[in-house]
Amino acid sequence: MSLTSLVKRLIPRTLGYRIRKLKLFVRGCIYRGNTYSCPICEHDYRQFFDGGFDTEGNSKYQIIGSGRRKNIICPGCASTDRERLILLCLKNKDLKLWPAESILHVAPEPALSSRLKKWQKENGGHYLAGAKYHEGFYYGNDLQLIDLLKLKFDDNQFDLLICNHVLEHIEDDLKAMGELHRVLRPGGKAILQVPWSPILETTYEDASIVDPKEREKHFGQFDHVRVYGKDYTDRLKKAGFTVEVIEISILSLDKTHYIRYGLNPLEKVFVASK
Ligand SMILES: [Zn+2]
User: Fold this and answer.
1) What is the value of pTM for the model shown?
2) Residue 27 Cα, ligand 1 centroid: separation in angstroms?
3) pLDDT tens, position by position, 217-245
4) Interstrand relation of 102-106 and 43-45 (parallel, antiparallel or unpaired)
């Protein structure tokens, strides 16, 4: 892409980003209250919004981490349950995920990304965010364009990887897992969240299903290429990782906290180590 066309693409996206920030600020002020708390923007609200979509695939496989969820979107920063769960894990000292010297955040969610960038800056660490280019998305000028099947980073470069709901979009997920393993330093950790089915023993995938409507029906979302089953951790192990599945209860939250932070108590956190 030429520099001119790149600039042309960036200008309206930057403007869109600023408008979005202003909109969130105003919405955050309107919805201030005492019922919900967002650990990402650190404000309290009277309401979180519903989010996600119900699809045939989601209901059929009872997919965790996907589908229509109640009270999950923060009005002030637009973070979702999945982002807040990761932040709470990073803040939990027993899990020893953070502080980390260098972080790679794949396909960064805007709210979580801003928060991590600030944290790393305050602590003198490095934060790198990378994503494949998608029309209409803007994550900030420092976003790097990356391909998860061929990462442009050195071996053993990062202490912490965050890849939240990405692998289910990638056909050759084993190759992507291998790349994540390669760039993680020995002793480093990777949070590799995916939507998954607790009723499927084995991951369901069929490369011949490419129609978005069919993918919705079979895999739960128009751009997902599989539904991970209980063997998701085996796939990570195949790529060389040691895997720990963390129950959300480790965060020492009770039922009121799940509701207050807008979390899904059925979620588990997949932490892969090298
Ligand atoms: Zn928030």
Assistant:
1) 0.91
2) 11
3) 999 999 999 999 999 999 999 999 999 99
4) unpaired
